[in-house]
Amino acid sequence: MDDCIFCKIVKGDILSYKIYEDDKVIAFLDINPLSKGHTLVLPKQHYVNILDLPEELYLHMSKIVKKISQHLNDKYKPEGILINQNNGKRAGQEILHAHIHIKPIYSDTQILSEIDLRKSFSKEEMDKFVKELSLS
Ligand code: AMP
Ligand code: ZN
């Protein structure tokens, strides 16, 4: 995609702080990180989000996320690691080239928690959701 900033990074047209690369995936440091070591893992080929990523590629990305998380943990010893992927603008996705965030969380890292915003549904509603959503 010509106007995609992450495609430009993959091609080497824009500088990035790359920490990992293989034939399918690249990982570089986020330019406006939440914390030291905040890394983005993305496919070299342009896909928009989890819905159009081929399953095999998503599985491979997950393997790399695990590998880099372990590496960040060994190097920087954070108190936790937050992993998230925003899919769609309404879900906070600014760059429409699929990517997974790996965010080390240290004692002084400010994180917005969604816990206070969570809802609770009645047993009837939960049963209805299970009926609608059950895959087995
Ligand atoms: P998202 O909101 O999930 O689409 O996240 C996009 C992320 O890309 C943000 O955290 C940005 O700071 C990061 N970002 C934007 N431009 C660059 C860039 N040129 N190099 C590295 N990270 C970038
Ligand atoms: Zn792209």
TrEMBL record:
The active site is at H99. A motif (Histidine triad motif) lies at residues 97-101. Coiled coil: none annotated. It comes from the Bacteria. One of its GO terms (molecular function) is catalytic activity. It holds the Pfam family HIT. Transmembrane segments: none annotated. GO terms for biological process: nucleotide metabolic process. Residues 5-112 form the HIT domain. This is HIT family protein. It comes from Candidatus Dojkabacteria bacterium. The lineage of its organism: Bacteria, Candidatus Dojkabacteria.
